[in-house]
Design a protein that fits this description.
about 200 residues; mainly alpha; 9 helices
Length: about 200
C-alpha cells in the first residue's frame, strides 16, 4: 500500500469514526452516566474490536457473505435485536453516580464484541478493505486495521469527553431522562443502515 493510499485510508477512518453512529451515541451516554475514566474500557474495546473486525473482514468474512447470503440476513437480525436491547438499557439509565443496581459501563470485551453487530462498523470495514487495499494480503489488511485503531481511539474519545462535560447539566432528573430517551431514539434510528446494508 502506497503512502498516498494509506493517508487516504486514515482520512476515511477519521471521518467514519468521529461522526455519529451507534458507538459514539453509546459513548456520549456512557460519558454522561459514568464519566470519562469509567468509559475508557468501552473506548479501548471499540478500538480493539474494530481492528479485529477489519482484519477478519479482509481475511475472509466478506467472502462468507458473498458465498452464503443468509449470513448477512442473520447479521441484520442479530444487530437489530441487540441494539434495541441497548437502546432500552440507555433509556432506563439512572442519574450519574446514582448506584442503580446493574448500572455499569460497557466492558472492553463487551465493546469489542459489539462491533460484530454494529452496522456502521461493518460498513466501515467492508468499505475500507474493498476501497483501500490494492493488492490483497494479510499484511495489507492488518495495516488497514492498525490505521483504524490509531485514528479511531482519539476520535471516539471526543464523544465520551462531551458526555463527561454534560454530567453537571444533566444532574437534573428530567433533563437526564430526556437525554437518555433521545440517545435511545438515535440508537434505534441508526438501525436503518442494517436494513439497507448490501455487499460492496
Amino acid at each position: 500500500m502506497t503512502w498516498d493510499l494509506y493517508l487516504a485510508l486514515l482520512g476515511f477512518a477519521f471521518v467514519t469514526t468521529v461522526t455519529p453512529g451507534p458507538n459514539n451515541m453509546m459513548l456520549l451516554a456512557s460519558g454522561v452516566n459514568f464519566g470519562f475514566r469509567r468509559t475508557l474500557p468501552h473506548m479501548l474495546g471499540i478500538s480493539l474490536g474494530m481492528g479485529v473486525l477489519v482484519s477478519a473482514t479482509g481475511l475472509g468474512v466478506a467472502g462468507l457473505f458473498r458465498a452464503w447470503p443468509p449470513a448477512l440476513t442473520l447479521l441484520k437480525v442479530a444487530s437489530v435485536a441487540y441494539m434495541l436491547w441497548l437502546a432500552w438499557k440507555i433509556a432506563r439509565a439512572g442519574a450519574p453516580g446514582s448506584g442503580r443496581v446493574g448500572a455499569r459501563p460497557m466492558t472492553l470485551l463487551q465493546a469489542a464484541a459489539f462491533q460484530w453487530v454494529n452496522p456502521k462498523a461493518w460498513a466501515m470495514s467492508l468499505g475500507a478493505v474493498t476501497a483501500y487495499v490494492a493488492q490483497p494480503s494479510a499484511a495489507a489488511y492488518l495495516a488497514v486495521a492498525a490505521g483504524f485503531m490509531a485514528v479511531g481511539l482519539p476520535s471516539i474519545s471526543v464523544w465520551a469527553a462531551a458526555g463527561q462535560g454534560l454530567r453537571r447539566w444533566l444532574e437534573h432528573p428530567v433533563r437526564l431522562r430526556l437525554f437518555n430517551g433521545a440517545m435511545a431514539v438515535v440508537l434505534v434510528l441508526s438501525l436503518w443502515p442494517v436494513v439497507t446494508m448490501q455487499m460492496p
